[in-house]
Amino acid sequence: MLRNIKIFFILIVTAMSLVACLDKEPSSAIPENEAMQTFEDAEQTVTGIYAMLKSSALYSGYLTLLPDIQADLVYAVDGYSNTYGTFWQWDIRPTNQEIESVYAGLYSVISNCNFYLENIDRVMATQTSDDNIGTLEQYTGEVYTIRALAYSELLKNFCKAYDPATAANELGVVLRKGYSEAELPRRASLYDSYAFVVEDLTKAEELLDVDNDAFSSAFITQGVAYALHARVALNMQDWDAAIEYSSKVIDHPNKEYSLSSATSYYTSTMSFYDYMWNYDVGTEIIWRVGFTPTSYGGALGSVFLHYTTDYTYYYPDYVPAQWVLDLYDGGDLRYNSFFYELQTGYDHQLYWPLLVKYFGNQDFISGNLLYHVSMPKPFRLSEQYLIRAEAYCRKSTPNFSAAAKDLTTLRNARYQSGGSISLSADDYIQKIADERVRELYMEGFRLNDLKRWGTLYNNGKGFKRTPQLNSLDEGSSLEVTIDNPLFVWPIPQHEIEAPGSEVEGNESNK
Predict the structure, then answer these.
(1) CB-based contacts of 310: which residues, under 8 Å, 6+ apart?
(2) Coil, helix or strand for 192?
(3) 477 C-beta neighbours (distance < 10 Å), count
(4) Of the chain's two ends, which shows fewer C-beta atoms within 10 Å, N or C?
C-alpha cells in the first residue's frame, strides 16, 4: 500500500467554533473545483484527513482528557491553572470553548471524509492500474472508518446512552451524509445515527484487507474497523455483535496483535508494556495517531505534570484520585507504569503519585526537548478483551466463565503474580468497572462508561468526590447522580442559533 507521502499538518483553527460546523464548506475543506481529480489528489485528501485527527481538540487533548477529568478519576490541585476547570466543577455550558472545539473538530473530519467519498468514484473511473485501484479501495475503506469513528465520538459525548427500547425516540446527531448538496441541519434519531455508523463500518470492512493489519499502525486497517465495531456494538447493547467483532481482533487470523507484556522485558530495565508508553510502539496498539517531532497535536501529559514550568518541579493541575490508586494491588505492574510519587512545586509542596503515563515520547524528549507529547492510542487490544468480557456477562444467558477468562488473560499480561479473577452475577459489573479504570485510566472512557451502565453501576448513584490532600475546595465534594443532564454534553449554542438551523439542544443546554 502506497504510504510514501509525508503527512503534513493541517491546523483546525479553533475560531471555526464561532461558525456553524455544518456549513457546506468549512474553512478546513478543500474547494470542490480544486481537488480530487487524480489519484494523487485522492491520496492528498486522505493525508489531510489523517492530519486533522492530530488536533488537540480530539485525541491528543479534549476528546481524551475531558470525559475523565469531568468524572471521578482525578482531583484538581489547590493552586492549579484552572485549565478544564469548568469540566472539573460540572459547570459546562453550550458556549464552552472546549465543547465547541470538539464538535467543530469532529464535523470537520466528517466534512472532509464526505468530500472524498463524493468524488472518489470519478477518480476510480479514470484509473487503469490495478495497483492504483486497489490502493484507492483501501483509502475508501479507511475514510468510511474514520467517518464512522467521528460520528461515534459525537454520539458518545453529545447523546444519551443507547437503549434499544427507546433509541428510535431519542435524539442522535446531525447526519451529514454528503458534501456538495445542502442538507437540513436537524438531528436524526439515536437509532438512525447508530445505524449509519454501522453501515459505514460494514462498507469499510468489505474494502479493507486483513493483510494490511499491523500493530502500532498510524493508518486505519481492517483491525481498527472491527475494534470500532465492537465498541459501537457494546454501546448499542448488541452483545452478540460486540463478542463477534472483538473476537475478530483478539483471534486475528494472522496473529497480528498481542498484549504488551509487563513481565517480559524489551531492555534489561524496561518491559514491553513500559516501552509502549515511553515510545508509543507496542504489539497491542491497533491504531495510534501518528506524530513526529515537527508534526504533532496536543500534549496529553501537561495538565498532570507541567514539568516544563521550570524543569525542576512539577505543577500538576490534576492528580490521581486516592480511590483509583487503591485499586492497584501489589502484584499489578500497571501502577509503576502509570504513577510516580513526586514533589510538586506548589507552596503547599504536595507530594503525591503523579500520572506519568503521558510523560512524553522519549525520542521526542531526547531529540527535541518536547515534553508530555505522546501519540494517542485510541484503539488497543486490551479494550477488546474488556468489551468481550462485559458482553459475555450482559447476554440474556451470561457466560461468566468466558468473561473471567478474558479478564484473567489481560491481567496475566499486567501482573507479576495473582492476576486470576472470577465473576458472578452479583459482582461482575463492579469488577469489570474496576478493571476498565485500571487499564484505561485517563484514556477518555470513564464518563461514557458511567452513562452507559446507568443504574446497573453503584445503584445509579453516579459518584461522590471526597476531598483529598491539597485538593481544590470547589469540586472536591461534588456528588453527581446518574440522571445529571451533564453526562450528555450540551450542543454548542451557535449550532442551535445558526440561520436555518433546526438542531435541537440537549437537556444540558437548558
Answers:
(1) 345
(2) helix
(3) 11
(4) C
Residue 19 in this model has a pLDDT that exceeds 50? no
3-class state of residue 173 by DSSP: strand
Q: Looking at residue 8, what is its pLDDT? A: 31
- Could you give the CA distance from residue 240 to residue 397 in angstroms, rounded to a whole number? 11
List of residues 6+ apart from 128 with CB closer than 8 A: none
Distance between CA atoms of 384 and 245, rounded to whole angstroms?
A: 9
Q: Express each pLDDT in 394-416 by its tens digit.
A: 999 999 999 999 999 999 999 99
Alpha carbons 328 and 326: distance in angstroms, whole number: 5
* Cβ atoms of residues 371 and 301 within 8 Å: yes
CA distance 476 to 465: 6
Report the chain's C-alpha Rg in angstroms: 22
Amino acid in position 190: L
- pLDDT for res 34: 64
The predicted pLDDT at position 5 comes to 33
| Residue 21 clears pLDDT 70, i.e. is over it | no
Nearest by Cα to 223 from 154, 145, 140, 290: 145
Q: What is the mean pLDDT of residues 12-22?
A: 33
Distance (Å, whole) CA 421 – CA 414:
13
* Confidence at residue 1, expressed as pLDDT on a 0 to 100 scale: 39
Longest C-alpha distance within the chain, in Å?
69
100, 57 contact by CB (below 8 A) = no
H/E element holding 200? helix 190-207
Q: Which residues of 15-42 are buried (b: 16+ CB within 10 A; e: fewer)?
A: ebbeebbbeeebebbbeeeebbeebebb
What Cα–Cα distance (Å) separates residue 497 from each residue in 18, 273, 509? 11, 48, 12
Of 504, 27, 75, give the one whose Cα is nearest residue 303. 75
Is the pTM here over 0.90, yes or no? yes
Do the strands 318-320 and 74-76 form a parallel or antiparallel pair, or are they unpaired? Answer: antiparallel
Residues in Cβ contact with 201 at an 8 Å cutoff, skipping those fewer than 6 apart: 144, 145, 148, 225, 228, 229, 232
Q: How far apart are CA 435 and CA 441, in angstroms?
A: 10
